Amino acid sequence: MIAIRMDRATFSHPQGLRLTNLNWAIQHHEKLGLVGPNGAGKSTLLRLLAAQLPPDEGQVIAAKGITVEYLPQEIVFETERTVLSEALTASSQLARIEALLAQVEASLGDPAVYGDEAALSRALDRQARLLQDYAEAGGLSYENTVKATLRQLGFDPAEFNLSTTALSGGQKKMLALTKLVITQPAVLLLDEPDNHLDLPGKQRLEQFIKNYAGAVLIVSHDRYLLDEVADGIVELDGGRLTFYPNGNYSAYVAAKELARLRQTQLYTAQQKEIARLEAAIARFELWARLVVDERHIKQARNKRRQIEQMDKVDKPVEAQNIGLQFDGWRGSDKVLEIIDLVKAFGDDLILAGVNLTLWHGMRVGLVGPNGAGKSVLFRCIVGQEQPTGGLIKIGPSVKLGIYTQEHQSLDYGKSLVETVRDLKPMYEDQAIAFLGRFLFPYQRAKTQTVGSLSGGERSRLQFALLMLQEPNFLLLDEPTNNLDIQSAEVLETALDQFNGTVFVISHDRYFLDKVVDQVVELAPERGTLATYLGGYTDYLAAKQEAGA
Q1: Per-residue confidence (pLDDT) for residue 147, from 0 to 100
Q2: 171-180 burial, b for 16+ CB within 10 Å, e for fewer?
Q3: Which residues contact 225 (CB under 8 A, 6 or more apart)?
Q4: Residue 548's pLDDT is what?
Q5: Euclidean distance between the first and final Cα of the chain, in Å?
Q6: At what angle do helices 142-152 and 169-181 cross, to 10 degrees?
Q7: How far apart (Å, rounded) are the C-alpha atoms in residues 337 and 501?
Q8: Percent of the chain with pLDDT over 90
Q9: Which of 524, 168, 155 has the alpha carbon at shortest distance from 348?
Q10: What number of CA atoms fall less than 13 Å from residue 402's CA on the CB side?
């Protein structure tokens, strides 16, 4: 049964984005992932489906009685409230009934009403009708439903009275999602709902999506999440949709590669046949000129008609990826040694006796919930924070390369070319060519400032600078945040080929499985590290086996 249908929908954006002749039917209860490169128009497509944008041509139609809710990337609450009071605003119907009840209750205290038997009777009748409407709309259990949904999406009851201004980005997303699902819409459109969530938060979100009764369309760069929740993938690229209805993200990758190989084979075979026919045409035309025989002219014409009537196979387009490569070098065998590290802020003990040794060539992932102290540990390693106690030793032949998730190392006032040339002297044309490898066109590389870049573009720039530094020890804090899936895969390949050591904070479970051979978990209740061999899946299995 179709919930939403797009019929030849076209949309053009003044900045150049164009979605062309889109046809799509979203079924009830489907769980779909929407993927595509940054800038492909995924958020715009969600807004079209949510009827927040009208198509220039064609139509987007929701089935009769269908409710559709959209969770945007950026969440802003208009008024400062507590978590619970903000969540309670979810039902506009109940809010309207409550406002009317308040008016009636106020009128009952008016002498003109309680002193007039007929007016009092009318007011009481209206109050009774409103109370019945309130009960039928679920008002009697509404607050309990809201509280249960908040808990389901990761809010502890002790956090219900927190101000919305005190929430993290991930908490704001989950509060906004709570408000959307209270009324159980038939279709949920979620634009990167997992951004800023830690691993436990992502696991809760996955379980919620799996169990949700309606249809869910999710945009996410988290391939692990798409593997867990999606039963079909839709790709948006070049303004067009391609459907992979059977399977999760990994199935989509395999199907797409098979389709690419098949297209390559068909294209190659067709080009050989066209070349054969064109050679034949050339021969017949030559004979026709030499012999002046009408038969040769007809044969050449027939061969040309064969070419014109072919259903042409498009040449496979290779994805344009960033040219990232970390060479690395040997350096010290012992890269990093942390001995009994303690870090406290006043009476707040964050790290309590951390011990860790990294050797050349190791790939280690650092995990733990938000607030556990992962970034504090990194800042201690690079000298931005002074430990309260303990030692940190970095090998004598170690050159650090640092990636910060908030791009703090970038000067937002400089142009891209200036940024590159400040790090490594080179001619302007060389800097522009280098930036081109990271998908920055000539004019933008020359004139655009760092501050005007998107989050994904700043990430690409920071990796470009990291590559220029030629480090042999990479310290990466959430490196796949803001990267599209293609760029994340290029990063994984570059790290796999890197002749050096990698220590990475990441909530990207797919990335951890691809890159690391050891996971260390920072437990906030202890402030110490626990070590698990293997990638994220191995770490999760060990935790489950231990009953954690």
Answers
A1: 93
A2: bbbbbbbbbb
A3: 194, 202, 205, 206, 218, 509
A4: 56
A5: 41
A6: 140
A7: 13
A8: 54
A9: 524
A10: 15
